[in-house]
C-alpha cells in the first residue's frame, strides 16, 4: 500500500473486508500494515509521540486478534503465522512490531498459565472487543508486592520496563505474595491505581512504549489469579513456555529489522548511490560495482539462512504451544529452548551486520538524516541488549558439549 498512516486512520483500507482466513492472507495483511508504517517510520520515531495511532492501525487491520478464537471473530491462527506476521510488521517499523509481538504474547498468557475457565473468558473478552495488551512483568525489577485480603489480592510497586502498557486496554501484572509465590493477573489498564511516568527515552525502539509503570492498590479477585484454584496453583511444564515464546518473538523482530534495512538500502542504492569513478575498472552505475554486488549477496544469503533457522524453530515452538498442555515434557521444552537460543543469536548477528554494512553499499550521502538508515541500527542495537546474547551461545554450547538442557528461568 502507498497510503500514509494518517490516511489509513481516516479511512481504513480494510473497512468492509472480511477477516483473513488463511495464514497467507494474514501475512499479506501484515505486509500491508508494514508498507503503511514504513512511509514515515523515521519521522514518527524522531517525533517520539505516544503511539496511539499505530495501535489503532494494528486494531483496524485485525492483526491483534489473529490468534483469537474464530467463534469470537478472531483468526484462529497458529503461532507459526503470528511470528511471521510480527516479522513482517517489524520490517516496516520495529517499534510497532514489538508492540504487536508483546500484545500477542500477553494475549496468550491466560493459555500459558490460566485455568480452562480463565482462558475462555480472556480470549472471548479481548477478541470480541479487540482489546490491546501490555505487561508489567519485568523480572529484573523487584516483584510487585501482593497482599492477600481474603477474597481479593492487592498489587503495589513499580516496574521499569513495561512494553505497550501505556497504550494498552488490558495489563498483565505479576507479583509475589509474602510466601514468595508468584501470581499473574490481567486487569483493565485505565484505572486510578495504574500510572505511567512516560520515561522511555532510548536510542532505539523509541515508539515501543517500554518505560515504567506504577501500580498502587490495584485490587483483583482471587478468581482472576491465573491458574489458581482455591488459592492453589497446579503447575505444568507448559507454563514455562512463556520465555521460549518471548525469545522467539524477539527473533522475529530482529529478522524484520534486517529485512527492512536491506530493502531500504537496496532501494537507495538503485536510485541514488553513485559508482566510484577513481578506479582502474570504472562502472556506469552503482549496481554494477563488484564490491556492492558482493556485499548485497553476502547480506541476503546470511539473512535467508537466519530466516530458515527461525522458520524451523517457529514450527517447533508452535507445535508445543498448540499441543495439549498436559502433554508437554521437560525434555521437549529443553530441546526447544536450545533451538530458540540458536535462532536468536543467529538473527542478532545477521541483523546487526546488515544494519551496519548497509552504509557501505549506499555511500556517504546515505548518512543524511533525511534518509534515516540509522533507525535500523538503533533499533537492533537497542533491543538485542534485552538479555546478553552470550548466554544464548553458552546454552547451545552446553547442549553440544555436555548434552545439558537449559533449566526454565525468567530468561531461558
Automatic annotation (TrEMBL):
Pfam entry (one): Acyl-CoA_dh_2
Domain of life of the native organism: Bacteria
Biological process terms in GO annotation: L-leucine catabolic process
Every Acyl-CoA dehydrogenase C-terminal domain range: 250-386
Keyword terms, alphabetized: Flavoprotein, Monooxygenase, Oxidoreductase
Residue stretches making up the Acyl-CoA dehydrogenase/oxidase N-terminal domain: 39-119
GO molecular function: 3-methylbutanoyl-CoA dehydrogenase activity; flavin adenine dinucleotide binding; monooxygenase activity
Family matches, as PANTHER family: ACYL-COA DEHYDROGENASE, ISOVALERYL-COA DEHYDROGENASE, MITOCHONDRIAL-RELATED
Official protein name in the record: FMNH2-dependent monooxygenase
Organism: Zafaria cholistanensis
Amino acid at each position: 500500500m502507498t497510503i500514509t498512516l494518517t490516511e489509513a486512520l481516516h479511512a481504513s483500507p480494510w473497512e468492509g473486508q472480511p477477516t483473513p482466513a488463511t495464514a497467507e492472507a494474514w501475512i499479506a495483511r501484515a505486509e500491508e500494515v508494514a508498507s503503511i508504517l514504513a512511509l514515515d517510520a523515521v519521522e514518527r520515531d524522531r517525533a517520539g509521540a505516544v503511539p496511539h495511532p499505530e495501535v489503532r492501525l494494528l486494531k483496524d487491520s485485525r492483526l491483534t486478534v489473529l490468534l483469537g478464537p474464530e467463534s469470537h471473530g478472531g483468526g484462529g491462527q497458529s503461532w507459526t503465522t503470528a511470528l511471521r506476521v510480527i516479522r513482517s510488521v517489524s520490517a516496516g517499523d520495529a517499534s510497532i512490531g514489538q508492540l504487536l509481538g508483546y500484545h500477542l504474547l500477553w494475549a496468550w498468557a491466560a493459555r500459558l498459565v490460566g485455568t480452562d475457565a480463565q482462558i475462555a473468558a480472556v480470549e472471548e473478552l479481548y477478541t470480541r472487543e479487540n482489546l490491546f495488551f501490555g505487561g508489567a512483568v519485568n523480572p529484573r525489577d523487584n516483584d510487585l508486592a501482593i497482599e492477600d485480603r481474603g477474597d481479593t489480592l492487592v498489587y503495589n510497586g513499580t516496574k521499569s520496563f513495561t512494553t505497550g502498557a501505556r497504550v494498552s486496554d488490558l495489563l498483565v501484572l505479576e507479583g509475589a505474595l509474602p510466601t514468595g509465590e508468584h501470581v499473574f493477573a490481567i486487569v483493565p489498564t485505565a484505572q486510578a491505581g495504574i500510572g505511567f511516568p512516560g520515561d522511555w527515552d532510548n536510542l532505539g525502539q523509541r515508539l515501543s512504549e517500554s518505560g515504567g509503570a506504577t501500580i498502587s492498590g490495584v485490587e483483583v479477585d482471587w478468581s482472576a489469579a491465573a491458574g489458581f484454584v482455591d488459592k492453589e496453583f497446579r503447575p505444568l511444564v507448559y507454563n514455562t513456555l512463556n520465555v521460549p515464546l518471548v525469545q522467539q518473538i524477539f527473533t522475529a523482530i530482529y529478522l524484520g529489522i534486517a529485512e527492512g534495512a536491506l530493502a531500504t538500502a537496496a532501494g537507495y542504492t538503485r536510485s541514488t548511490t553513485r559508482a566510484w569513478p577513481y578506479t582502474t575498472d570504472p562502472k556506469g552505475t552503482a549496481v554494477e560495482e563488484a564490491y556492492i554486488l558482493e556485499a548485497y549477496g553476502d547480506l541476503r544469503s546470511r539473512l535467508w539462512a537466519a530466516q530458515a533457522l527461525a522458520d524451523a524453530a517457529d514450527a517447533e515452538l508452535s507445535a508445543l504451544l498448540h499441543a495439549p498442555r498436559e502433554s508437554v515434557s521437560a525434555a521437549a521444552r529443553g530441546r526447544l529452548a536450545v533451538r530458540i537460543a540458536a535462532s536468536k543469536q543467529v538473527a542478532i548477528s545477521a541483523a546487526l551486520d546488515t544494519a551496519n554494512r548497509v552504509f557501505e553499499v549506499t555511500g556517504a550521502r546515505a548518512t543524511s538524516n533525511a534518509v534515516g538508515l540509522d533507525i535500523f541500527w538503533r533499533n537492533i542495537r537497542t533491543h538485542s541488549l534485552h538479555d546478553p546474547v552470550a548466554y544464548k551461545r553458552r546454552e547451545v554450547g552446553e547442549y553440544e558439549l555436555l548434552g545439558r538442557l537449559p533449566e526454565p528461568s525468567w530468561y531461558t
